[in-house]
Design brief:
By secondary structure, this protein is mainly beta. The protein has one helix and nine strands; from the N terminus they run βββαββββββ. A hairpin with a 3-residue loop joins β7 and β8.
Length: 149
């Protein structure tokens, strides 16, 4: 049986957990995730674990440190914005996730970490930055991607 290698399109079921066991994402009871290995579309630690797996194979508790996931938590990625800069219909509360435009015009999720009468402090770090992640993986299928024309 063939094992997964960079360039293969793979279908994988996964469950991602934090150190405390809480689930932050899963494909169970849904369609498996399809991704081409080597294209950087999944975090490095998961991609490394998938390479070499065969269809039907499981890996439980693949531990991925922050460096191979969403990177370290960077305190400098917090920013205070005036409440006047927020849309009128937004009533921010600590813990809320809002969508903001990046300098490149892409939408990014930000987390409200403090609110005052005049300003809102936003955390631009990925919500999983700085965290060790645990994954249960099941490689469902491998398909070679077609060669470009």
């Amino acid at each position: 049986m063939a094992s997964a290698k960079p360039g293969d399109l793979v279908a994988v079921h996964y469950t991602g957990r934090l150190d405390d066991g809480s689930v932050f994402a899963t494909t169970r009871n849904r369609r498996p995730l399809e991704v081409t290995l080597g294209h950087g579309r999944v975090i490095a630690g998961v991609e490394e674990a998938l390479v070499g797996m065969e269809p039907g194979q499981h890996q439980d508790d693949v531990v991925v440190d922050a460096g191979k996931a969403y990177g370290p938590y960077r305190p400098e990625l917090t920013v205070a914005v005036s409440r006047d800069e927020l849309p009128d219909d937004v009533d921010p509360r600590v813990g809320d996730e809002l969508l903001a435009a990046s300098p490149e015009g892409e939408q990014v999720a930000v987390t409200v970490i403090d609110v005052s009468t005049s300003a809102v402090v936003l955390d631009l770090n990925h919500r999983l930055a700085g965290k060790t992640l645990h994954f249960d993986l099941e490689l469902v299928a491998i398909r070679e991607t077609p060669a470009p024309l």
